[in-house]
Automatic annotation (TrEMBL), chains A, B:
InterPro entries membership: 6-hairpin_glycosidase_sf, 6hp_glycosidase-like_sf, Gal_mutarotase_sf_dom, GH65_N, Glyco_hydro_65_C, Glyco_hydro_65_M, Glyco_hydro_65_N, Malt_Pase/Glycosyl_Hdrlase
Protein name, entry field: Glycoside hydrolase family 65 protein
GO biological process, one term: carbohydrate metabolic process
Lineage start: Bacteria, Bacillati, Actinomycetota, Actinomycetes, Micrococcales
Pfam families: Glyco_hydro_65C, Glyco_hydro_65m, Glyco_hydro_65N
Keyword Hydrolase: yes
Organism: Cellulomonas fimi
An MF annotation (GO) of this entry: glycosyltransferase activity
Length: 798, 798
């Protein structure tokens, strides 16, 4: 997975506030970034934070989860098994547009006088609000207030409340509420004319139906054969007379409302939007589905949608909120992170979750190991139903994964490195096909779900089969040498600057875990396993391979090479520490692969995910070794580094990395927030807080905690779900408090440090905080690659 | 470099004759192959063996050395340093066409009655002859005899003698002699529409000039900006009246000759063709250049061209001929090989030589390591001027190679893996950029030239700079580990089924040789080296690295892993021995790379090129080990395996491999002779005879010989040039004879087995042949991959 960092481009300050992200005045130079930051989504439907009036914009974006178009993948030199067809998330019919004309002058932030322009993403309310006070070039003043939401409770529905108030003079208003299809696309990142062609006007009009209060339009893609429907309906509230007209053409539909306002009078329009798509259902069925969603939305009413949105989020925050005293910057960033991770996954429901959620078309909207590796751990601990649905989607693609494995000459199932619908679309195999750890990441997510929720039903319905098929994959991928050690050769681990290697420690550990998990699951479900053809010989072979797995170790240096020979490779020469572009933009893969330079946590991630596989001394030495060689050209790195820094007692460094992970988008640290948010980094930030400072882990039986706290944070509390209980952990400078707030009858077994204890709803358990001393001095990073020191104070940031 | 083997498609028998390749009757199903086999070329101008009348054809082909068009290289996932522009040899203006109408009926082998149709490539005369006896559908009978040549002595000139005789009835003949540009291309092997576009009508008309006896036409390419000129001129010999007309349009020109013949009368037309191209010279200059070449050809006359062609070849065969008694199949194949290698290189003169010569557009006409690695050793020993010119071309691309090295973050010069003009165009870096051994192959060719010819001038003029810049490349590519051993990591050796590896033995040995050769050359030319900026520190560092080079060795198995860990990898499972398609067409690179399966001689090639780096025992064990794992999906393999089989005493196996190398095109063993001949395999066959059975090598001081002979060959003689002398070696069942025929005043020092002796022109030296006993049993090959047993008898073959 590639990163592009166009140089840190610090955004105009967004004030540090605990429960919202607010832009006090519109900044046209960072429109692309704010469109991503202010994106609303429920995982099924996503709206970028484009301005209501459509223009100016950087990237207009309306997305339906997994609604994609195909395009060819051309190779100058092809190879057997290369995917032939790419997939790209399509910008579908845009229902956000509300064009306002004030006495015939279009409202546009670039013209006239903008007295006020504030946007505010409310993390508790789940709405995007906008307040505008504008004087038209002709001198007419209006106040515009809009509120936009994408409903968590009405999966197919979004809504806009749009209110205009005349100030000072009477005005004639025309409000054009639109659906627009095939908007001019942003620049396509492809040299191939056929790719651009596939994404230029991707949708073919099927039908347009003007209904009572709006329009329903159907379109389909040319290649992928998917059909979508978008509908809008309106409520108009105004004291005086108004007229409404509807019009619809193949690629646009318009509801026009005209009225006049005296000073102080208001026009208030509620626009209900509904979307649906299907690869199989008929056009009438889709049309009716959208019409029904509109009916349900009208029935709920605007306030009903707002209220249920708030209730949904109250419930979420009750299970997931984090409080950080002493670091308001992190406080805001972590809530922002949680909110967007929830938005990405909440209602994706049997569709894949993209690495950018539905906030942009970066990575073509594809899902990667980001989701199972970084996002699902958070969702499993805070919104387990969303995690279960994401895993059900993976399982639903098993047939494609089996076909892919067969193409590759392997047994079992090989899930795709990047995809929308489950078909492999990765066009560079050393950083795609070869990164087989994805399969174990998926298996781990299933295991975590079962262990954290205590819910066995997912394993029964589909998890067992995934575990079995991935175990089969691993057994066919590995082999025993003549001394009986089990090896995985020619694979790529998480670090994409070291590809196609032998015995990547992370991958080998993950494969062994996958094999053992499958064998254990088979033992739990012997009947069902037999129907999958699993024999005792087969599951014994899985255990044998896991037992014999080879983990390279460099005795001279006392560190684990992340793969065979790694610690023998040449060191990277950092020639220009001022140049902070990713190395991949200024050096060929050839050079990166053969040197000791690490794009992202790999062995360090292995230490995060396998705390018991390393002694404290090994952990300290390994972290020291890899810190010197890790450039963090991937947004998937800082969170893992934060966790291991915390575990090795480098709390200040852990705090710095945590800031980097959490602020990746609020500060646009990789220069590509414009293309969508880094959902996995945001999830990783929460993981880093809870696993790093909270010291949380599960060992399959118990929830374990080894809390610690950096000096800059006065108090940290977090919440998570553990086998039905909602656990709250609060850490202060000298105490740890565990409780089950509001659950008088619940209880949970915890291992706090080395003390086994049971927390009940009756009251909190309080223990002294233990300090953690590092075994080695604080490690250093490559020139120019140290994380920015965490700045916790709001005014320093802005 | 990839191979595609469409299943052995045995051709209709071509009779086994010592000095020609003859097709007794036309076979339309193998037209594509015979067009390649019957191609004529002098290295500058190449004509595929298309029928005179243009149709039917498989691939019309007229090529000018290094005359190419650019096309884009699209990557679905690009990377830093990826070449952006491809190059393809262009099918230029076709001057071969002689359309004959007999009483208005076009002569076409598909219509009427073909009483005789014989084609014959005369390896001594250097001409392609054709004899036809045809009865038109209307019953008119003619005999057509044509002779075609591409002149070795007139570089820009080709000629056709075309004679028609009326048989039985009087006939009216119309002969249309043409130049045709932008012929419909054969199917383009690319999914990218822009590549097809670049090669569809690649030439833009510049001018057409009708001259006295013909036409000169100029065209230029759209992208690469090259201009070419083609001209034709005619002599007409007929007893009766005839008329001649000329016509020219942008993409074709026609000279029409009309006459009538009484039975027994003949029309004889000599067509002179001349070609030229330039990237820099003006259009008038090119037009004049071609006109001058036509004038020179007319001045020489047809017989003059034929005679000088024969004289040129007599001289060549006098230095290069091989005689093989007892194996007429091999006799023919080796002469065919020598002839085509000469055709590829004779007059390429400061242009690159393509892997297919000028016989087809396979591999887009690119040059690879094939040339320096396999072709130049032959040319250096038999036609050293051609070798010197090819090396001068390489040196002329040094600036591009330096730029490429800089792009890759390396010092010195990195020559392109595949190119026409010196710009890297390889689009798959693991089997392109990473195959750095090419640079040492080039350095080795310079060294061999100096040592074999004794001529220092090439080193002075350009070789020293190549040696210095490639040594600099290697020093920046390698590094010392903490124990002082020098490693080359992440490179690809000859075996393309094992790519991007550490410490490939072949590459490490080649790099060390390159470094030492550069240091030695610097010591020979201290002044000149200083102007290249070489210090004593620098050349000392080269020697140090060469001295410290790491060569992996598996002590347990007693063999050299071809790269680190190779002997630890999983074995390939050969599931279907009947499926002889190349593995790369049915397995992904991912699988091939991580297993012990070898596409082509790699460690075995190292043993061929570095006989002193291995003991006899190591050689025997290594050969045995790699034979079991080598599938020969590359045509570059069999010759090296033949040499090592001979050195390890497996003479019958050596003989089998020799047949495979020599018959690669005459038997179309890789199923792609249609796309052009495998020049390196043909050259390798000669190398295999001379190095394998002849036991020839040079150690920098002496020519060494350790002859042996397989049972099936009664007598083998070969010739080569050694420091000005023409050495002839003759091997029979019990004797070795060395002589300098026809050079009374010459002498040469030889090491025959372990006897140092001086051969003079006065008489031959005769010594007993020593037998060679293998240390191990005959090795085996993977299922279905054993070479066909050599069939030496002509009637068995046909």
């Amino acid at each position: 997975m590639s990163a592009s960092r166009a140089g840190h481009s610090p955004r105009a300050a967004l004030p540090v506030e605990p429960w919202c992200v607010r832009e006090p005045s519109v900044d046209l130079t960072t429109l692309a970034q704010t469109e991503s930051l202010f994106a609303l989504s429920n995982g099924h439907l996503g709206l970028r934070g484009n301005l209501d009036e459509g223009e100016p914009n950087a990237t207009p974006g309306t997305y339906l989860g997994s609604f994609f178009e195909n395009h060819p993948l051309p190779y100058p030199e092809g190879g057997y098994g290369y995917p032939e067809s790419g997939q790209t998330l399509v910008n579908v019919t845009n229902g956000k547009i509300m064009r306002l004309l004030v006495d015939d002058e279009p409202f546009d932030v670039r013209y006239g006088d903008l007295l006020t322009h504030e946007r505010r993403l409310d993390l508790r309310g789940g709405v995007l609000e906008r307040h505008v006070d504008w004087v038209s070039p002709a001198g007419k003043r209006v106040r515009v207030r809009s509120t936009r939401l994408v409903s968590f409770t009405h999966r197919a529905v979004a809504g806009i409340e749009y209110e205009v108030e005349a100030v000072g003079d009477p005005v004639r208003l025309i409000l054009q509420s639109e659906l627009v299809t095939n908007e001019a696309p942003p620049e396509v990142d492809s040299e191939d004319p056929r790719v651009a062609q596939a994404l230029d006007n991707p949708l073919v009009a099927v039908s347009q139906d003007v209904e009572q209060g709006g329009v329903v339009m159907l379109h389909r893609t040319r290649q992928s054969g998917l059909t979508m429907a978008a509908g809008m309906d309106h409520e108009v509230h105004v004291d005086g007379r108004y007229d409404v007209e509807h019009d619809a053409r193949p690629d646009w539909a318009r509801t026009t409302i005209v009225t006049t306002l005296a000073p102080g009078e208001r026009l208030r329009v509620v626009k209900y939007l509904a979307y649906g798509w299907s690869a199989r259902r008929s056009e009438p069925a889709l049309r009716d589905q959208v019409a029904a969603a509109l009916t349900a939305a009208r029935y709920a009413g605007w306030q009903g949608l707002v209220d249920s949105q708030r209730a949904y989020l109250d419930d979420f925050w009750g299970c997931a909120d984090v409080e950080v005293d002493g670091d308001p910057v992190l406080q805001q960033a972590v809530r922002f992170s949680l909110f967007h991770v929830l938005q990405a996954g909440a209602r994706s429901e049997r569709r894949g979750i993209g690495a950018k959620g539905l906030t942009g078309t970066g990575y073509n909207g594809h899902t990667f190991w980001d989701i199972e590796g970084f996002v699902l751990p958070l969702l499993t601990l805070t919104a387990p139903d969303a995690a279960a649905n994401a895993l059900r989607w993976r399982a639903s693609t098993l047939d494609l994964a089996r076909q892919r494995a067969a193409t590759l000459g392997l047994a079992g199932a090989a899930f795709p490195w990047r995809t929308i619908d489950g078909e492999e679309t990765s066009a560079y195999w050393p950083a795609g096909t070869a990164a087989f750890h994805l399969n174990a990441d998926i298996a781990r997510a299933f295991e975590q779900y079962r262990r954290i929720t205590g819910d066995d039903s997912l394993e029964v319905s589909c998890g067992l089969e995934v575990l079995v098929e991935t175990a089969r994959l691993w057994l066919s991928l590995g082999h025993h040498d003549r001394h009986g050690r089990w090896h995985l050769d020619g694979v790529t681990g998480p670090d994409e600057y070291t590809a196609v290697v032998d015995d990547n420690v992370f991958t080998n550990l993950m494969a062994a875990r996958n094999l053992r998990a499958a064998a254990d699951a088979v033992a739990r479900h012997p009947e069902q396993s037999r129907t999958l053809g699993v024999t005792t010989e087969e599951s014994a072979a899985w255990r044998d391979a896991a037992e014999a797995v080879h983990l390279p170790y460099d005795k001279e240096l006392g560190v684990h090479p992340q793969c065979n020979s790694f610690t023998r490779y040449a060191e990277w020469e950092f020639t220009d520490p001022e140049d902070d572009r990713p190395l991949m933009l200024r050096a060929p893969y050839f050079q990166l692969y053969r040197k000791q330079v690490v794009k992202q946590a790999d062995l360090v991630l292995a230490m995060q995910w396998f705390p018991d596989a390393f002694t404290d001394e090994e952990r300290a030495r390994n972290f020291d070794y890899y810190e010197k060689r890790t450039v963090r050209d991937s947004s998937l790195s800082a969170a893992a580094q934060s966790v291991i820094a915390a575990r090795t007692g480098h709390l200040r460094l852990a705090h710095d990395y945590l800031h980097e992970a959490a602020l990746v988008d609020l500060r646009d640290l990789h220069g590509n927030t414009s293309q969508g948010l880094h959902i996995a980094s945001l999830a990783g930030a929460w993981n880093a807080l809870v696993e790093g400072f909270g010291g949380m882990r599960e060992d399959g039986e118990r929830l374990r905690l080894e809390p610690t706290l950096p000096a800059a944070i006065d108090r940290l509390s977090f919440r998570l779900r553990w086998r039905g209980a909602r656990v709250r952990v609060e850490i202060t400078a000298d105490e740890v408090r565990c409780s089950l707030p509001g659950q008088p009858d619940a209880s949970a077994d915890l291992l706090l440090y080395d003390e086994l204890l049971t927390v009940t709803g009756a009251g909190e358990v309080v223990r002294p905080l233990r300090s953690r001393e590092p075994l080695l001095p604080t490690p250093t990073q490559p020139p120019g690659r140290a994380p920015e020191p965490a700045r916790t104070s709001a005014d320093v940031v802005s």
